[in-house]
Design a protein that fits this description.
By secondary structure, the protein is mainly α. It has a single domain, classed as 23S rRNA-intervening sequence (de novo design (two linked rop proteins), Up-down Bundle). Helix 1 packs antiparallel against helix 2 and helix 2 runs antiparallel to helix 3.
Length: 101
């Protein structure tokens, strides 16, 4: 029984860490996008848009991990993951287009 309690506490700590990562990477998407919009140069715009894409990809990883490890298999998590994938695709296409110019 003692093992189960230790395992439960480790699992709870891991869950909180993953949720914290989702919050950080997820909010970073928007923060970097706003920085890109206000960028003084095209080079800075591309750089911040790329950071936004990287954060979206990281968020996709964490949301997928939550789903596949049964931390959160809710419809809300599924919806967030789907929207995040869509956003990452849009950002990816934008970044790709910018680097072709």
């Amino acid at each position: 029984m003692k093992h189960l309690l230790v395992l439960s506490k480790k699992s709870e700590k891991l869950t909180h860490s993953i949720i914290d990562q989702v919050m950080r990477s997820g909010t970073s998407v928007g923060a970097n996008y706003i920085e890109a919009i206000g960028a003084p140069t095209t080079k800075d715009f591309r750089r911040f848009l790329s950071y936004s894409l990287k954060s979206a990809n990281e968020t996709k990883f964490w949301l997928s991990l939550m789903q596949h490890t049964n931390i959160d298999t809710s419809k809300k998590n599924e919806m967030l993951l789907s929207e995040n994938i869509e956003l990452a695709n849009i950002l990816g296409k934008s970044v790709s287009t910018l680097y072709k110019q």
